[in-house]
Amino acid sequence: MSMISLSRERIETEALQLPASERAALAHRLIASLEEDGEDDPADVELAWTAEIRRRLNEYRRGEVQPIPSDEVFAKARKLLK
Questions:
Q1: I need a surface site. Which of 12, 32, 37, 39 has the fewest CB within 10 A?
Q2: CA-CA distance, 27 to 71, in Å (whole number)?
């Protein structure tokens, strides 16, 4: 086994001996570290969606786009999924 595998195994063994609350905190921290590698900040995503919703609503209010009835949207979606 490589040195890295032994280290991971040792860390895993020791981590599993921690109380549940500490294991949960460690798991959360490890998952967060993965998400930091290329994932967008949730707050930034929320702001972007809010801006997009406002843009679309303003287009609708100005009459630049026409709403499509939901039954038409779902019928088209079902047809595409077949």
A1: 37
A2: 44
Non-local CB neighbours of 16 within 8 Å, separated by 6+ positions: 23
Q: Radius of gyration (Cα) for the chain, nearest Å?
A: 24
Q: What is the pTM of this model?
A: 0.45
Q: Where does 16-61 have alpha helices with state H?
A: 20-35, 42-61
**Chain segment 19-50, per-residue pLDDT in tens:** 988 888 898 888 877 776 566 778 888 888 99
Percent of the chain whose pLDDT exceeds 90: 48
Structure tokens that stand for 31 in this block: 């998952």
